[in-house]
Design goal:
By secondary structure, the chain is an alpha/beta fold. It is built from 17 helices and eleven strands. It has a seven-stranded mixed β-sheet with strand order 2-8-7-6-5-3-4. A two-stranded parallel sheet has the order 1-10.
Length: 420
Amino acid sequence: MDGGKVGWGPKWQHVPMAPVDPILGVAVAYTADPSPAKINLGIGAYRDASGKPIVLKCIKEAEKKIANDPSMNKEYLPVQGLEPFLKVTSQVIFGKQSKALAERRVAVVQSLSGTGALRIAAEFISVYAPGKPCVYISDPSWGNHHTIFRKAGLKTVTYRYLTPQMGLDIEGMLQDLAGAPLGSVFVLHTVAHNPTGVDPTPDQWKRIADVCEKKRAVIIFDTAYQGYATGDLDKDAYAVRYFSDERGLELMVTQSYSKNFGLYGERIGALNVACADEETAGKVRSQLNGIIRPMYSNPQLHGARLVAGVLGDDSLRNMWQQELTDMSQRIVDMRSALVNALNRIGCPPPNAKFTSWNHITSQIGMFAFTGLAPQHCDALKAKHHIYCTRNGRFSMAGVNPSNVEYIAQAIKDCIQGSRL
């Protein structure tokens, strides 16, 4: 009989092709383009004024120290991560004078950058938050936010964030959050909102905190650009420190060291959970470890040593902070250069809702939310070999003095062409 052979054929032919990631797909298309004029404005990674990736000087110095230390080894880390890293990473975001840290009520674990921190947080919420609460995410937001929480079995919805003129829709945001059920999850961007670059003011953060407190929300601050946004670590951490110290709110804070240390491939980050008391923090930490153990067992070593080495050395930390200032300022300069170039050639605004291009200079952080429509972005790629996501988000790190005039001319061509 042949019955025992049923199912012995090819097993995975029924698996469908996954859709191309809208952000990573830009990099794939850019790489495949043979044009010498091609420009990548899609990738969220820093480039210097000549368009080249860099390794920070402080990182090079930290690597030398590691290489010359005979006591170093390559043993497994504990599930929670490298202890010197864990000590300093919470101080970076909460501040050395943090009440929560002084009271030892912050549970912290090392993660696979910010994405990994969000996934750990999502799994924890899915298991321990009563009733699997709905997750509220800004519209627009980083493209991976919804997928991360849905993979953990949580429902996601959006709250209003942006006006048609690229300002913060604070009233719409507050109305949507106020309408959420008690105990809902609110995902907030600590600084340099991705993709818009539009952040709340301190007074607006206070109003947001009022709603979070009233709704007894599970608060998640996603922190990808601390120090990179303005060059000032403390200024960029304002929202987290206000919510934690001045309002005494329990919250989760993810951290990524990809952008501000240039450690994109090292995948270094952390998840901090500020709890009501030290005993609760201990229990939360144990359960975070319980999530990590079957997920990836323990985190990466080398990048954690680099971050801890820089943050734990006054000379290297000062060097890092100066490099952060330099990177941040270059992005600010390129925003101004692009707007000046657009104005100089008389480029019309992206649509009738705008009277100028000034929204580009009012935004902060790595990205500019230009207001360009999908058809404009498609034309930039097809006609001018300029690659960006179809929502009009530009990585300003890809703009430099040698290509800013070309980009401006291409934008003008695509806008005027679409109006013919």
